[in-house]
Amino acid sequence: MKSAVVVDKPTIEYHHGADLTGIGESCPRLSWKILSAPSGFDQKAYEIKIYRTNNAGESFCRSLRVQSTEQILVPWPDTALTSREKVEIAVRVSDGQTWSSWSDSETAEVGLLSASDWKAKMIVPPFPADRFIHGDVHLIRKCVQLKGSVASARLYTTAHGLFEAEINGIRVGTEILQPGWTSYHHRLRYTTHDVTKLLSGGTENVLGFWLSHGWYKGRFGFLGGRTNIFGDKEGLFSQLEVVYTSGVKEVFSSDETWKFSKSPITFSGIYDGEHYDASKELADWSSSQYDDSTWLSAHVKVFDPSVLIAPDGPPVRCTEIIQPVQITRLKNGRHLVDFGQNFSGRLQVSMKGISGHKVTFRHAEVLQGDTICTRPLRHAQATDSYIFGKKHRNVVWETKFTIHGFRYAEIEGLDGDCVLTDVVAKVYHSDMTRTGYFACSDNDVNRLFDNALWSMRSNFVDIPTDCPQRDERLGWTGDIQVFGPSAAFLYDIRGVIGSWLKDLAAEQNEYGNVPWYVPYVPGAPWPLEQAGNLWGDVATITPWDLFQYYGDTGVLERQYPSAKAWVEKVLVDFCDDSGIVSKGAQLADWLDPLAPPDKPELALTDPALVATAYTLKSLRILSETAGILGNIADEKHYQHLFEVMNNIFITAFFTDEGISKNRTQTAYALAITFGLLSYSQSKVAGNDLASLVRANEGKIATGFAGTPIVLDALSQTGHLDEAFMLLLCKECPSWLYQVSMGATTIWERWDSMLPDGTINLGEMTSFNHYALGSVIKWLYQVIGGIQFTEPGFKRIKFKPQPGGGITKCSTKFDTPYGLTSIKWTYLNNHFETEIVLPVGCTGSIELPDGQVKEVTNGDHSYAVVL
Ligand code: BGC
Known about the structure:
Blueprint: E1 6-7, E2 11-12, E3 21-23, E4 30-31, E5 34-36, E6 45-53, E7 59-67, E8 86-94, E9 106-110, E10 122-124, E11 138-145, E12 150-160, E13 162-167, E14 170-171, E15 188-189, E16 191-194, E17 204-212, H1 214-217, E18 235-244, E19 249-253, E20 259-262, E21 265-269, E22 273-277, E23 296-297, E24 299-301, E25 308-309, E26 316-322, E27 326-329, E28 335-352, E29 358-364, E30 366-368, E31 371-373, E32 383-387, E33 394-397, E34 404-412, E35 419-430, E36 436-440, H2 443-459, E37 460-461, E38 463-464, H3 477-487, H4 494-511, H5 538-550, H6 553-574, H7 607-628, H8 632-653, H9 665-673, H10 679-695, H11 710-716, H12 720-728, H13 735-740, H14 776-784, E39 786-790, E40 795-798, E41 808-815, E42 818-827, E43 830-837, E44 842-846, E45 852-855, E46 858-865
Parallel strand pairs: 3-9, 15-25, 22-32, 40-44
Antiparallel strand pairs: 1-5, 2-4, 6-7, 6-8, 8-9, 10-24, 11-17, 11-20, 12-16, 12-18, 13-14, 13-17, 18-19, 20-23, 21-22, 26-35, 27-28, 28-33, 28-34, 28-35, 29-32, 29-34, 30-31, 36-41, 37-38, 39-40, 41-42, 42-43, 43-46, 44-45
Helix pairs in contact: 3-5, 4-5, 4-6, 5-6, 6-7, 7-8, 7-9, 9-10, 9-11, 11-12
C-alpha cells in the first residue's frame, strides 16, 4: 500500500540543480520537506540512505537511522566525504509507528577540498608588467591528446579576473562573470563542470578560455576609481580531470605549455562596457585544426591554492529574456530601444553589416526628453560597441564580461548597409530559487512589490550590491542589512548572503573593522578606520536574519566572532563617556527626504539616537546568539550591557512617558520595533508617531534607518490606518509616488525623478536601489498575514490585517518545511480566508475579529463577519 506520508528529495546544504556538481562541504547538512501527511503527523525519526562512490570508483551504501524530530539542516550522518566523491541520498521518516516510502534521491559530487588536489599553475599573459593594458581580453588555448574513450571528465577552473571556457568550440556552462567576486586574497571560488560530453576520446581536444580583468584588476570604485585593486596581472588556473573507460585517470592542468593570444574583445570593463572588433576574430581558435604557432607560451605567477573554495551559492545566469516594448528612430539618426523595465543584464543583438562598420550601444535607466540620461551613471561609460569583420555579415552578438543596469538602449550606427534584425535584453543575476509571492487587489501596491523584486534581482549579482548601473555596484553593508528580511521573503538568499558574510568576516579580521562595502575597494571617501552603525551592524543583524528565516544555527556559529568584534569595536571606539554612541562616521537615517539633496547624511533624526538604537539591537542579538551557542558568560554579559545602555538611551532621547525629544518618524520607529520602550512608553510613542504621520498627510519622512520599520512600528502599536496611509500615499515623497511616476524598480532617493519629470540633480540618483523597498516584509507579514514566531518558520502565525480598501490578497512562501500560503477576501464586512500550513510546522491564526485558533498541518478555511 502506498504510504500517506510523502517526503520530497532531500536538499544538500543550500545547493540546487547544476550547482550540486562540485560542492565544498565534506559533511553537508541535509534537509527535507514532508510534502503530505495525515493531519497531526509528527516526525519522530528519520532514516537516510547514502550511496557513495569514492575516488577509486568503489560504490557502497549506508543507511543511518536517527531518533529526531528535526528535518532542517540535520548533521551529516556518515563519515566525511572526500574530494570528487559522488553521493546519492534518499530519506524517509517515521512517526514512531510506520515508515514513509523513501523519497526520490538527490545527487551531489564533491569538488576539490584540499590545496593538494590542485596540480594547476596560475598562468598569466606573457608580457612584462608594464605591458598589461587596462581592459584587454585574452584567449588561452591548450590542445590535449586523450588516450582512450572517456568515462567522465571534470573541468575545475578559476581566475584572477573573469573567464569563460570552451571545449572544442563549445561553450562550457551557462553562467557568466565567473568566478564571481569574493575577497580574492582570502577566498577565491572555482567552478566545476561535467564536460564528459564535450570531449572526444582517443583524439586531440582543445581547451579554450577567454580571460578578462573583471573585478580583480579592472577599474572600480568612485571618483574615477582604481585599477589593479587585487593584483596587476590577470591569470587563469584550470585543471581538466579525465577518467577513461579503462579506469585510468589523467589530469591536464594549466602551465607554461598553455598559450595566449589577443582576442577580438579589445576592451572590457564592468562599469564601462565592452568593445568587440570582429576583424580580429581567430576562426576556430578552440578547435584542434587551428594553428597556434604564433601564440605565446604562458608565464606563471605565484599562487597559493589554499584560498580556493567551492561556491556557496548559485552563479550569475540569464534568468529571463525581455522583448523591447518600443524602438524609435531619433532625429539624430540613433535608435532608442525601450524594454519597459529597468533591470541588470545586457543586450543580445542580431545585425547585418559590412566589414569595418561600427555600431555603438549606450545604456541608461531613464530618459531626459527623448534621449537617454547618463548623468546618474557618473564615471561609468556603460557603452558597448561592435565592429563588423570580413567573415560574417550576419551576427548574433552579446558582450561577455560586462553588465549594465538599464531600461533604455541607444544604438548608433544603424545606417547604410547595417540593419538590426533583432534585439532583446537578457536579464542576469545570481540564479537563486524564488520563494515568495504576493498579490493583492491594489495594483499600485502590486507594482511596488514588483519594483522591489526587480531591484533585488538587479542587485544580487554575485554579491548584494547597492545599485547595478553607476560607478559603484559595491557590496554596501547598510543596504543589505536593511533589505535582508525583505529579500528573504522573495528568494532563497542563503548561498549568496552566506558567502558574502564569510568575505565580510575575513576582511573585518584583516582590517580590524567592518568595511563600508565588502569586498573592500580602497578609495576616498570611505576610509577603513571609520565605520558607522546600521552599515557595520550587518555583522550582527544579517546572520541573525538568516537564522530567523532559515533556522540555520551554523551561520550564527560561523559569524559569531565577527558579530562580537563589531559590537566590541562600537563599545570601545564610538561610545562616549555618557554611554551614548555619538562617535564614528554615522550616516544614520541616510537619504531622509528632508535632508538637502547634496548632503543625504543630514537627516532630521539625531545620528546618535540611530547609532545607539542600532548598538542596542546588536547587543541583544549578540546576547541571544551567545545563548543559542551555549556561551552563557557572553549571553549574560551582553544582556547586562543592553539593559544599562537601554536606560541611558531612554533618558537621553525620550521622556519618561515615551515621547521622543527628536519627534521624527525614524526615532519612534527605531525605539518601538527594536523593543527599547516599556509597554506604556511604546503606546505613547505609537500614538505620537501616528499623529506625525497624519500631520504629514501620509508622506514618508524616513531614510535608510526608518523606512524598513516605520510601518511595523505603526501596526505593532495599533495604528493600522496610519500604516496604510503611509503605504498608499501617492504624494512625493512616498512609495507610491515612485509608482505613479512610472518606476519599474525602487529608486535610491524618494524623488530620484522630481514631480516635473526631471532627474534629481543630487549625486545619489540611482533608479535601482533596493534599500527603500524594504517594505516587502510588511506586505507579507501584515497585509498577507504570514509571520513566524520560531526560527525557520517552525511555528507560523497567520494574522491577515485588511485595510486601505484592499479587498483581497494572496501570499505564498516556500518555508524550509514547505509551501505555506494564505488567501483572503474582504467584501461587505465578510472576511474569508484559506490557509495552508506545511507538515513539520505548528501554527495559529488570528482572525481580524480577534479570534485566535490553533492550526494543524494541511488546508483550512475560515469566515467571519466584521
Ligand atoms: C550607496 C548607498 C550606500 C551609501 C553609503 C552610496 O553611494 O549607493 O546605497 O549605502 O553610499 O552612504
